[in-house]
Amino acid sequence: MMKTAKEMFEALGYRKYSIETSGLIIGWQANPKDYKVSHEYRNIQFYTDKTWNIFSDNITQALVFSKPTVAEFEAITQQMKELGWIK
Questions:
Q1: Is the sign of the CA dihedral 35, 40, 41, 47 positive or negative?
Q2: In Å, how far are 9, 36, 38, 52 from 73, measured between CA atoms?
Q3: What does the alpha-carbon distance between residue 32 and residue 41 come to, in Å, rounded to a whole number?
Q4: Domain map (residue ranges) of the chain
Q5: How many CA atoms lie within 13 A of 41 on its CB side?
Q6: Which end of the chain is more exposed for a tag (fewer CB within 10 A), N or C?
Q7: Burial of 2 (0-12, 13-18, 19+ CB in 10 A)
Q8: Angstrom distance (rounded) from CA 38 to CA 31
Q9: How far apart, in whole angstroms, are the C-alpha atoms of residue 33 and residue 40?
Q10: CA–CA dist 34, 20 (Å, integer)
């Protein structure tokens, strides 16, 4: 049976959040153990205009745009399917 996006993201250590800004629909955030800085977070966000982004930020609020891993991309793809963006 196909896992849901929620199950896939949670298996990768992400937790769901939402904020009232810029058309954000869903955000997922992780603080991977292998990061060198403990206050660094990895974020994946989905927006109402059917776009998404992935980035890292830290306590200084500096943004670093990132490339998804294969497992993250699979979860992102599943999330887009659940949002009705792709079949």
A1: negative
A2: 10, 23, 24, 11
A3: 7
A4: 5-82
A5: 16
A6: N
A7: exposed
A8: 7
A9: 10
A10: 30
